[in-house]
Amino acid sequence: VITSQTPASAFAPSGQFARALATSSLGAEKINTKVDLESDKVVTMDEIEAGKKKVYCRCWLSGTFPLCDGTHAKHNKETGDNVGPLIVKGA
Predict the structure, then answer these.
(1) In the annotation, is 41 catalytic?
(2) What is the pLDDT of residues 28-60, one digit of tens each?
(3) Which of 3, 11, 34, 44 could bond 66 through an S-S bridge, CB–CB 3.0 to 4.6 Å?
(4) Dist. CA 9–CA 58, nearest whole Å
(5) Model pTM?
């Protein structure tokens, strides 16, 4: 749930993306290896009905991107990472 009290860190890059930002120079290595590769930029716009929620992928590993399919759990177990989804609830 995003509120006015939601810390900016909730939107911070995590997992593969954060590691790539921290360790590679611009263009050194792709983070996204499977989602809409023919596009210059992957952009998703969505609407959420009041009272409904959606769970979005932040690890770029989901088979249902941009929605989370829980793939991050296996990734976390294998790597010791702590990446998780962004959960948004319509007001």
Answers:
(1) yes
(2) 678 888 899 999 999 999 999 999 999 999 999
(3) 44
(4) 13
(5) 0.65
